[in-house]
Automatic annotation (TrEMBL):
Serine protease component of the complement C1 complex, a multiprotein complex that initiates the classical pathway of the complement system, a cascade of proteins that leads to phagocytosis and breakdown of pathogens and signaling that strengthens the adaptive immune system. C1R catalyzes the first enzymatic step in the classical complement pathway: it is activated by the C1Q subcomplex of the C1 complex, which associates with IgG or IgM immunoglobulins complexed with antigens to form antigen-antibody complexes on the surface of pathogens. GO terms for molecular function: calcium ion binding; serine-type endopeptidase activity. GO terms for biological process: complement activation, classical pathway; innate immune response; zymogen activation. Gene3D superfamilies: Complement Module, domain 1, Laminin, Spermadhesin, CUB domain, Trypsin-like serine proteases. Residues 1-18 form the signal peptide. Residues 305-370, 371-439 form the Sushi domain. The active site is at H492 (charge relay system), D544 (charge relay system), S643 (charge relay system). Its EC number is 3.4.21.41. It comes from Gadus morhua. This is complement subcomponent C1r. PANTHER family: COMPLEMENT C1R SUBCOMPONENT, COMPLEMENT COMPONENT 1, S SUBCOMPONENT-RELATED. It is found in: Cell surface; Secreted. Residues 454-691 form the Peptidase S1 domain.
């Protein structure tokens, strides 16, 4: 018996054959006595007691007294004990120690179930009186678990627990009780294995041979890892050996990987290693109600997904260099010196690329492109020679040069620049500054020669006085080119009656006035008369110096070039020859005419004291800011119109502007000399004016 009560109840309800058990409370003990006990019992009795205790209990009957007519086999009077299923539990008669009969003694009698029937029967005679019997019974818990019947299924398929009046089944670890409360099934559904390695086996492995299983195991690790199954060698899943090899028809282990055909396994060969290339593997183990599968066991491990080798980079490096690059690995891309990183056609600063969980790099490999320095800066009045092709790439070499002989490169004739890794053109000293072409001064391409004693001077040949400038301000005047945007002249050319003119015209580059005045004049940016020039009455020519700043720089050539300023502290020895040019008045056949051709003459420097003496009686005074030149006979003299032109004195092979044609007492007069502004006294003012205004 011993089924859990509710099942009985259920059966009863379904069978409609008994009262609801739940309402009945069975006694758990009681007393039974023969009729009239302890008086002797009568003849021809047939008494019956049906004892019952609660389900899950058995009845323990203990006799306290028995005195029934003793006979062989208890054939006259007897107390018969029957089990629920009418099996004879005992047939008793006699007394304790009586030679005949069958006395139960003090041993209690147990019913196999929770019911027991007692039948007391007597015959018609009694040779002597007998008292009968007295017994009590009590309910005893049955240890259902101990009931071993080798022919029937055990009550519990795995573990049995006896309880008062009943029992409970339970299951080993990894199993769970089926709804029938008796059998166990593998608890193998819904398990998710998310660790990066682990162990799995079929329920009960290696002992169990289980049927009717539908187990599902899911190995699901984080993306970026792939699962590898390693089956142990003990592997057995029932297979059907058909003509076409074994088919896994009834028992199988199915391995499913996303986007792949599931693989069904059976047989007794371990599949060994299975590389799934997936982070998500489902195992379905199925057995049906027949056959035998011992099961399987496996260890799974994971590996990081690998990204394809990034390959090598021309003109660059990929670090670190691994044989294999795995999920979460990073690579750095660097270009060789002189190369830049390019991605999608754009330059990028740095490149770190990550191996993603899908086995792809998160960015493509950039390229290393040679850097270039761009077109080098042009050199004003110079040029560039491409020594290594016409590209501007790294390590290209260019050479700057100036337009000789009118311009000079500071520090050399030619200077090489290289395109360096920082994308700058740099010279051999690593300086990235483009050189400057400075105008060559005082070196005309043609030499004038001497024209000492020729009255009125001599016609100048082309290019012999390239610094000569024609001024048309208030009448004709001269000027001296001293820089590519600076003309030096006499202050009195620009100041009339104490008022500075604001109109001026500057032309240069030819020896013929007619030629010059057909040319466009250079635009003047500003006039700078020496602040110390104060000559309202034309008697004080001290500080007769002025500068004209031109709007645009002049590009020099053989016909227009500057003259050099004298060196600091330059002095002039008496008698040294100078050269004076000008478009001024010249003598022709004894008459003064305004020359339309550039004329020149070469006066010697006159001793300062000699010159002062020559001015005795005149209202004009000679100052230290003046220098005199001329022949005592007056044949080499500057005249009106020459004012502002240069007294050039050569120092070595260059001409310097020693003086500016300033004034004189009559032209070409014996005993009179030409007076020139002594330029060396104004070097500081000139340089300051030029610096302050040269933007
Ligand atoms: C698979 O497991 C066996 C032991 O069962 C072991 O010897 C073998 O090294 C494993 N293979 C791999 C690739 O892990
Ligand atoms: C894993 O695969 C199973 C079926 O193969 C699918 O149902 C589940 O959504 C997958 N899980 C992930 C995280 O991809
Ligand atoms: C020299 O330069 C001047 C002024 O720029 C120009 O007018 C003249 O044509 C040039 N002469 C030569 C020979 O290039």
């Amino acid at each position: 018996m011993g089924r859990p009560n509710w099942i009985i109840w259920l059966l009863c309800v379904l069978g409609c054959e008994c009262l609801p058990v739940a309402d009945v409370v069975w006694p758990n003990h009681g007393k039974i006595q023969s009729p009239d006990f302890p008086q002797p019992y009568g003849p021809d009795l047939l008494e019956r007691w049906d004892l019952r205790v609660a389900d899950g209990y058995q009845i323990q009957l203990t006799f306290t007294h028995m005195d029934i007519e003793p006979t062989q086999d208890c054939s006259y009077d007897a107390l018969v004990l029957l089990s629920d299923d009418k099996k004879l539990l005992g047939k008793f008669c006699g007394q304790e120690d009586s030679p005949d009969g069958n006395h139960p003694g003090n041993q209690p009698i147990l019913s196999p179930g929770n019911k027991m029937s007692l039948v007391f029967q007597t015959d018609d005679t009694n040779s002597e009186p007998h008292k009968g019997f007295s017994a009590h019974y009590q309910a005893m818990d049955i240890d259902e678990c101990a009931l071993l019947d080798p022919d029937s299924e055990p009550l519990c398929s795995q573990i049995c627990h006896n309880t008062l009046g009943s029992y409970l089944c339970s299951c080993h670890h990894g199993f769970e009780l089926r709804p029938d409360q008796h059998t166990c099934m593998a608890s193998c559904v819904g398990g998710v294995f998310s660790e990066l390695m682990g162990h799995l086996s079929s329920p009960g492995f290696p002992d169990a041979s289980l049927r009717k299983l539908d187990c599902r195991y899911l190995i699901s690790v984080e993306p970026g890892f792939t699962v590898t199954l390693n089956f142990t060698s003990t592997f057995h899943i029932e297979s059907d050996e058909g003509e076409e090899g074994s088919s896994c028809l009834y028992h199988w282990l199915e391995v499913t990987v996303q986007d792949q055909q599931p693989v069904r396994l059976c047989g007794d060969q371990s599949p060994g290693l299975m590389i799934t290339n997936s982070n998500n593997v489902t195992l379905d183990f199925h057995t049906d109600s027949e056959g035998v599968s011992d099961g399987w066991s496996l260890h799974y491990s994971t590996e990081r997904v690998s990204c394809p080798s990034p390959g090598s980079l021309t003109h660059g490096r990929v670090t670190p260099a691994f044989n294999q690059y795995l999920y979460k690995d990073y690579i750095h891309i660097r270009c060789d010196q002189g190369y830049k990183l390019m991605m999608y056609g754009r330059e990028i600063d740095s490149s770190v690329i990550r191996c993603q969980s899908n086995g792809q790099w998160h960015l493509p490999l950039p390229e290393c492109q040679i850097i270039d320095c761009g077109k080098p800066e042009e050199l004003l009045n110079g040029g560039i020679k491409y020594l290594s092709g016409s590209d501007y790439q790294h390590r290209s070499v260019i050479q700057y040069h100036c337009n000789e002989p009118y311009y000079n490169l500071v520090g050399g004739v030619k200077v090489s620049f290289t395109c360096t890794a920082d994308r700058k053109w740099r010279d051999n000293n690593d300086v990235p500054v483009v050189p400057v072409c400075l105008p060559v001064c005082g070196k005309p391409t043609a030499r004038a020669g001497q024209a000492g004693r020729i009255l009125g001077g001599k016609l100048a040949l082309p290019d012999t006085f390239p610094w000569q400038v024609l001024l048309n301000v208030n009448g004709r005047g001269g000027g001296i080119m001293i820089g590519d945007r600076w003309v030096m002249t006499a202050a009195h050319n620009l100041v009339h009656n104490g008022i500075q003119v604001d109109k001026d015209q500057v032309r240069g580059g030819h020896i013929d006035v007619n030629e010059l005045i057909n040319r466009a004049a250079a635009s003047v940016a500003s006039l700078h008369v020496h602040p110390g020039y104060d000559n309202p009455n034309h008697i004080n020519y001290d500080n007769d110096i002025a500068l004209i700043r031109l709007q645009n720089r002049i590009t020099f050539n053989s016909s227009i070039m500057p003259i050099c300023l004298p060196p600091d502290g330059a002095t002039y020895v008496d008698g040294v020859m100078g050269l004076v040019s000008g478009f001024g008045v010249s003598q022709k056949d004894g008459t003064s005419i305004l020359s339309n051709k550039l004329m020149f003459f070469s006066p010697p420097v006159v001793n300062q004291q000699t010159c002062i003496r020559s001015l005795a009686g005149e209202s004009q005074r000679l100052t230290d800011n003046m220098i005199c030149a001329g022949m005592p006979d007056g044949k080499s003299d500057a005249c009106q119109g020459d004012s502002g032109s240069a007294l050039a004195i050569s120092q070595g092979d260059i001409y310097t502007a020693a003086g500016i044609v300033s004034w004189g007492i009559d032209c070409n007069t014996r005993g009179k000399y030409g007076v020139y502004t002594r330029v060396v006294n104004y070097l500081d003012w000139i340089k300051k004016t030029m610096n302050d205004n040269d933007i």
